[in-house]
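Minutes, project check-in

Agenda point 3 was the complex the collaborators sent over. CS summarized: two entities, 229 residues total, and the question is how they sit relative to each other. Sequences were read into the notes so everyone works from the same version.
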Amino acid sequence: EPEVTQTPSHQVTQMGQEVILRCVPISNHLYFYWYRQILGQKVEFLVSFYNNEISEKSEIFDDQFSVERPDGSNFTLKIRSTKLEDSAMYFCASSPYVSEKLFFGSGTQLSVL
Amino acid sequence: AQSVAQPEDQVNVAEGNPLTVKCTYSVSGNPYLFWYVQYPNRGLQFLLKYITGDNLVKGSYGFEAEFNKSQTSFHLKKPSALVSDSALYFCAVRDINSYNNNDMRFGAGTRLTVKP
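CS then shared the predicted structure for the full assembly.
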């Protein structure tokens, strides 16, 4: 089965630094998402992306966050100035259309020191 | 916005016994409902979904779920639990009638432990 791939699997950064988390969604999918999970608990919605623009974002997704689809395959999440509370597992997901399930990547564990 | 509630943080059952993991939802229109499972240090894996049609949906690994519109519930069930079913289970919803219906919202998760 096709997979969503995420890199890196682990990212350690200093507070205040910028990080970019990378995702390659499944190639024929149209809808893209970022979620995060803190300490293996609740899965929190960050942002959805469709037709080269953000379609919805949560209150977590403030001005420090941005997403981009720089080419036909990659989907990135940038955190401009990381905070300690940004430490979490970040999951990328994609789906071919709105009624379909989300296909999740295996996640990037971000640790902010 | 759409939301789901999973009232139990933890469910413990003995192997071979039936299991139920509860989920209720809130949407302004009609829901698309999903269950996902997460094993330790892994991403979320799809189990099953309800879009329309038969209220009882069957999914992977012998799991099933029943959509109950009057009770706004979508409980996950399995007739006979296995130790290998022990994992974190998430219910999720999309509101197909919302203007921005792209995002899927997850419940807080229920940790299922099946003891031998």
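Noted in discussion: The two ends of chain B are 41 Å apart (CA to CA).
Follow-up: revisit at the next meeting once the mutant set is ready.
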